[in-house]
Specification:
alpha/beta; Rossmann fold; DNA polymerase, domain 1; 6-stranded parallel β-sheet; 10 helices; globular
Length: 219
């Protein structure tokens, strides 16, 4: 079985950005509003048949979040946000959980909407890169998740049938996209998030990556 991991929020802790958002907007909770706006923009562009690199979307969504709080986000703030995204820490259980999956014979790759250079830097800086057999970017497919092309890119390159792969993510939209492409799914309920209520339920739901590993190995 091939485990295909999403990166941002699923493996890496975006709460590390709260201090930055507090400084820029005066509100650390603005980080979640920014992330949700970024995803909304990415999903809309993708549904409309367009494509824009994920980092550009992330930067573009910072000024309106600051403006809603009476602040101004400068180009320097946008650049700093990009730099901070490269150095996010891993959630504490991630390393040991992935090590357990590998020891149990699972293949392990990452699939992210971030461009390849950023994805590699993120996993390297978080100390996780040696645990992954490969790192895939939706940028290589020219379409952002949850469009089918990024998932198919992984399956084609790894020469794995959809039924022999499971997408592990903390985002309902990612789970839904992977399921539509035929992959198994495992939802991680980070930050009180939940699966899309109008979509089919994920194959399994877990509180963290350690719980995912325990359930997958138990199967």
């Amino acid at each position: 079985m091939l485990c295909v991991f999403d990166v941002n929020e699923t493996l890496l802790d975006l709460a590390a950005l709260d201090e930055f958002f507090d400084g820029v907007t005066g509100d650390p909770a603005a980080r979640r509003d920014w992330f949700d706006l970024m995803i909304h923009n990415a999903l809309t562009l993708t549904a409309a048949g367009g494509y824009r690199p994920f980092g550009q979307i992330a930067a573009a969504c910072l000024p309106p979040i600051a403006a809603a709080r009476g602040r101004t986000a400068t180009p320097e703030h946008q650049r700093e946000l990009g730099e901070r995204l490269r150095t996010l820490p891993a959630h504490p259980e991630v390393g040991d959980a992935i090590t357990r999956l590998r020891a149990a014979g699972f293949g392990v790759v990452a699939l992210t909407n971030s461009v390849s250079e950023v994805a590699e830097a993120q996993l390297r800086n978080a100390g996780l890169r040696p645990l992954f057999d490969a790192v895939y970017s939706a940028d290589e497919a020219g379409r952002l998740k949850p469009a089918p092309e990024p998932y198919r890119l992984v399956l084609r390159t790894e020469q794995v049938a959809p039924a022999d792969a499971v997408l592990i993510a903390a985002h309902g939209w990612d789970i839904t996209g992977a399921a539509a492409a035929g992959l198994g799914t495992a939802f991680v309920s980070r930050d009180q998030r939940f699966p899309l209520p109008a979509a089919d339920a994920p194959g399994l739901t877990a509180v963290d990556i350690d719980d995912v590993a325990t359930q997958l190995i138990g199967r």
